[in-house]
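Table S7 (text form). Paired inputs.
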Amino acid sequence: MSLGENLQFLRKKENITQEQLAEQLGVSRQSISKWESDTAYPEMEKLLQLCKLFQCTMDDLMQKEISQIYVEDKSNYDRHYNEFSKFVSLGIGLILLGLSATMLVYGLNYFFEGEPLTEDFCGIIFLIFLVVGMAILILYGIRDDDFKKKNPHIVNFYQEKEIDSFNRKFSVMATTGISLFIINVILLAGFDAIFPQISGNEYLESFEMSFFFLIVSIATTIIVYYSTQKDKYDIEKYNQLNDKNSDTYKKSAMTCTVCGCIMLIATILYLIAGFVFNKWGMPSVAVFAIGGIGCAIASIIINFKKSQQI
C-alpha cells in the first residue's frame, strides 16, 4: 500500500477531513489531496508530524499496509488485554477474598464448644488464596511484558464511538465500585451501632470483617477490571509505556518499584510473624491490607509529583 493510501486510511479512521488535517499540519488542503493521490510527497518534518498525529511509525506509514496492520493488531491486542484484565482483577480479588475467608473461618470459633479452629489453620487458608492470587498476577504480568516486547508500538485503531461507548460503561462501573466501598464503610459502622454485643467479641468481629472484606474484594475486582480495560483504549499511553524516555514510562516504573517493595516488606513481615512468633492468623494478615493502602497512597503521591514536574 502506498503512502497516499495509508494516509487516507488513517485520516478517515480518525474521522478527520482534508481541511482539518491541513490545518493541523499548517499546509493547504491541496497538499493533503496531492499526498493522498501520490502525486506529491510531504517533507520529512511533515512526515514526522503525521507519525506523531496518527501514532504510527514512519516505516509503517511509508512502506506497509496499515489497514492490514490495523486488523491484525486490533485482534491480537484486544485478545491480550481482555485476558490480562480478567486475570489481573481475579488475582487481586482472590487475595482480598482470602482475607474475607480467613476471618470467616476464624469467626466460626464462636460456634465451637470444643477445640476451636486455630490461628495457624486460618493462616494456611489465607496463604492458599495469597499463593494462587500471586501466581496469577506473576503469570499474566510476564505474559503482558512479553506481549509489550513483541509489540512495542501499536497503531491507534480505536474509533471515537468505541471509546465513547466504553467510557459510558466505565463511568457506571467505576461509580458502582466506589459506591460499594462507601456503603461498606457505612454498614461497618452501622453493625456496631445496631449490634453493640459485637464489640469486644473477637469472633463476632471476625464475621463483621469477613463481610467487609468480601465487599472490598468485589468492589476492587470491578474497579481493577474496568480500569485496566480503560487503559486498553489508551493507545498513546501504551506506546509511551514502551518508550523508556517518556514521563509515562518513568512514572509507571517508579510506581511498580515502590509498590513492589511495599508488598515485599508486607510479605516478609507476615512470614516473620508466622515462623518466628507462630502468628499466621489475626492480626498478622492485616499487613497486606496496610500494604495495599500504602501502594495506593504511593501511587497518588508519585502521580502528583510527576504531574507537577510536567
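Next pair, protein 2 of 2.
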Amino acid sequence: MSKSSEERIEEAVRNFYKGYNCSQSICTAWADEYGLTEEQMAKLSSCFGGGIGRMRKTCGAACGMFILLGLKEGNSVPGDKDAKAANYAVVQRLAREFAKRNGGSIECSELLKMGGVATTTHYQPDERTAQYYAKRPCPHIIEEAARIWAEYESGNLRDDE
C-alpha cells in the first residue's frame, strides 16, 4: 500500500530527528516510490546535507527535491538540450516556491541565519542534541520542501509567476 503525501511529509521530518541530514530526510521518505531502498536513497543523497557537504550552499532539503525530480523525470540523453531545458525549468520553479515559503532563500547559510543559528563550514557535523534540534529551522524547512514535492507530484503546485 502506497503512503499518502501527508505520511511522507511527516516521515521526512521524522527522518531528520532520526539523524539524517536534510537531503536524506526528504529523499528517504520517497525511496520506495522510486524503487530504491532507504539505504540506497540515503547514500544517494548523503553528500547534499548541510548545504552540500556542510559548505552551507544550496539547502539540502531543496537538493532533496531536485534529486527526486531527477529520478522522476530527469534527462538521461546526452546532448538533449530540450530535455535539459525542461528539467532546469522545473528545478527553477521548485526553487522559487521553496524560497517563497522559506524567507526568500534556498541557501543553507541564509536559512540558518534567519533562524538565529550561527553557521560554520567546518566539515564536522554538530552533535545531535536536544539543544541542536531546538534551535534549528531545519524541521520546518524539511516539511516545506516535502510539501512542495508532494504538491508537484500531485500536479497541485501552481507557478504564480
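The CA atoms of residues 56 and 120 lie 8 Å apart.
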